[in-house]
Amino acid sequence: MTGGGMTGEPVRVAVLGCGAIGSLYAAHLARVPGTEVWAVDPWAEHMRAISARGLRVTGLAAFTARVRATTDPADLPPCDFGVVATKAQHTSAAVAGARAALAGAAVASVQNGLGNEEVIAGLLPRVIRGSIITAGSIAEPGVVRYDAPGDSWLGPFEPRPAPMAQVQRLAGLLTDGGLRTHALADARGPQWAKVIFNAATSPLAALTGLPIGDVCTDAGLREQADALVTEALAVCERAGITLARPPAEAMAEAVAQAYGHKPSMLQDVLARRPTEIGVLSGGIAAEGRRLGVATPLHDCMTALVRGLERSWAG
Fold it and tell me: How many CB atoms lie within 10 A of CB 11?
């Protein structure tokens, strides 16, 4: 069932983290009749603009959605669903702040990397594993640019799963809003496919300053990216995970649809913000250690990006 509840009450969704991805999710969900969307983010100017003028989408879509926006998670009413779209390092604080409103909700991570669901599951009982390949960027407060399309995949997080009916309902809401989403019994394959692609390209983009298309087509960088993919695939195979799509297919799609897109890690480096290297290359390396698979290339990427981050303080 999608749209409003059978009692006529709205389906209430809280989006935690209203950067590019959170803004795209909030705006598309808010287009679904009978759905009430709340966005929570500490960026006060962005929240004020959304409250005053709505959340405007440009680029591949053009519409303005009515979204309730706040900087304080204490403002949230009880919600049916939560969508966590913060940077990985902010997951715990964001979910803890909204814990009261999400106590009865099914809560999905649509974040980068590995380990976010585990953090959410430490605070809430019904968790959804999510993976997306949509891309965008904030153009100005209250405006998000939709840069590259892509499907989303949702599935119960095995240690503390949301019921499959709730996974299917959230997937239906997103699809109805314009973001095609698949509900799967096991969503590890799509998640790992994205992690492998991101960990093979984002650190190289962050270290060189080049967008995704250039990383994927430069002969020397593509050789490094392919080697990072091969190393991560060995971890994936040892874990018994079947990928939803080959990483080479994702790279070809990125070149075709998002050649000039700057991945979030490059955006973070340009702004001298902490990156998510710890849950991308670092996440693959940690899983490799757990399974007894060596990951020297991902260890190298992790060390190089963390070294770059350290240089900003010096």
Answer: 22
pLDDT (tens digit, 9 = 90+) per residue, 68-110? 999 999 999 999 999 999 999 999 999 999 999 999 999 999 9
In the block, which residue shows the tokens 């692609």? 197
CA triple 154-292-187, angle to 5 deg = 5
Q: Are 80 and 91 in contact (CB under 8 A)?
A: no
| Residue 127 DSSP one-character state | E
- How far apart, in whole angstroms, are the C-alpha atoms of residue 222 and residue 219? 5
| pTM for this prediction | 0.90
Tokens for 258? 């998002």
Q: Which one, of 179, 168, 113, lies nearest residue 144 by Cα? A: 179
Amino acid at 21: I
Query: Which pLDDT tens digit goes with each residue over 15-64?
Result: 999 999 999 999 999 999 999 999 999 999 999 999 999 999 999 999 99
